[in-house]
Amino acid sequence: QRQAVKDAGKMIQLEVVRIINEPTAAALAYGIGKSLHETVVIYDLGGGTFDVSIIEIRDRVFEVKATGGDIFLGGLDFDQAMIRHVIDDFQKKHHIDLATDPVAMQRIKDLAERVKIDLSSREQAPFNVPFVTMTPQGQPLNIDFVFTRKLLEELTSKLVDRTFQILDRVMEDAQLDPSKVDELLLVGGQTRMPLVQKRLTDRFGKAPSKGVHPDEAVAIGAALYANSLEDNSNLRLQLLDVIPMAIGLEKAGGTFHVVFPRNAAIPNAKAIEATTSYDDQTEVAMRIFQGDHAQVSHNELLGDFLFSGLRPAPAGKARLEITFDVNIEGILTMSARDMETGRQMKTTVRVTQH
Predict the structure, then answer these.
(1) Angle between helices 194-204 and 149-173 in degrees, nearest 10
(2) What element of type H or E holds 167?
(3) For domain 247-348, which CATH number applies: 2.60.34.10, 3.40.190.10, 1.10.3470.10, 2.60.40.1180?
(4) Which end of the chain has less Cβ packing within 10 Å, N or C?
(5) Which segments of the chain are extended strands (E)?
(6) Neighbours of 264 (CB within 10 A)
(7) Per-position pLDDT tens, the chain of length 354
(8) What CATH number should be reported for the domain whose range is 2-71+174-241?
């Protein structure tokens, strides 16, 4: 994804100077210029993704202690839970499946989002789609009922549970007790939901900070960071970030050999030694994955790396030094060196486009 952002910038002649993580940007928006010494938790529940980071702010140093998230969990899933309920309810009453009607679905989808937003400030809201479809006899049918905040909370509590499982894991990674958190920052429109705020208040024993705007914090933080990178800027910042998932390679038998563990500091480099597995082998292929599972089949393939031009030798005799290098933006490059001949080869591991 990071490489894709850089590529997209290139396509429109935009120089991508630096990529930073959204929760880190939100922390910058909150902390710059306040001479703070705080540990903050950023809970970022946006439209399509969920991120959580624990960041230690020491005046102009922003150090990410741990980070985690789910790229398939966000406000759209809350909408989807409402839509599913409306369709199922309609089918029970009228024995008509609206899911097969794209126009009806679009109308329900648009209204679901509006009603969800309404229910953050009201206990109930009308859910009304007139003439949504017709009976086989040509009789028009409407969707017309009252959606309550309680119903919305019942339909989506499992989604909120999933964010808390990730939050707990990240807190554990950072070895941080909830009582030691100075501020809790909410980012992303879905965090306006009262259930989310209530559960976070219960967990941390204090209400979330009002110090950042949920919709603007990330953009403001990124802009401030960009400003700090200008040569003539008097805003000097130090960002110490981590990788969100382990990076490693596939071992024989499909197990995952971790090179950089989850939450390893970046920039970072590591060298490992490899050898050949059969006689007269002239190339070594490696598959690089990211994820936290012991089996590579459950992790995400970042790319393939092929080192060719090895001298033919008996199995296990050739010696290769493979260096993994993760830069400040979390983009991985790899180089390999034949330790006998000193021959060098380098590659950027790119996500293979499917």
Answers:
(1) 40
(2) helix 149-173
(3) 2.60.34.10
(4) C
(5) 37-45, 50-58, 61-70, 124-134, 140-148, 183-187, 238-242, 247-250, 256-260, 265-266, 268-274, 283-290, 300-308, 320-326, 332-338, 344-348
(6) 15
(7) 778 888 999 999 998 888 888 899 999 999 998 989 999 999 999 888 999 999 999 999 999 999 998 888 999 999 999 999 999 999 999 999 999 999 999 999 999 999 999 999 999 999 999 999 999 999 999 999 999 999 999 999 999 999 999 999 999 999 999 999 999 999 999 999 999 999 999 999 999 998 899 999 999 999 999 999 988 888 888 888 888 889 998 887 889 999 999 889 888 999 988 888 888 888 888 888 988 889 999 898 888 888 777 778 888 888 888 899 988 888 888 888 888 888 786 666 654 333
(8) 3.30.420.40
* pTM, 2 dp: 0.83
Distance, CA of 74 to CA of 45 (rounded, Å): 6
Q: Is 318 exposed, middle or buried (0-12, 13-18, 19+ CB in 10 A)?
A: buried
Q: Which of 89, 135, 93, 138 is nearest to 112 (CA)?
A: 89
Of the candidates 42, 91, 78, 35, the one whose C-alpha atom is nearest the C-alpha of residue 60 is 35
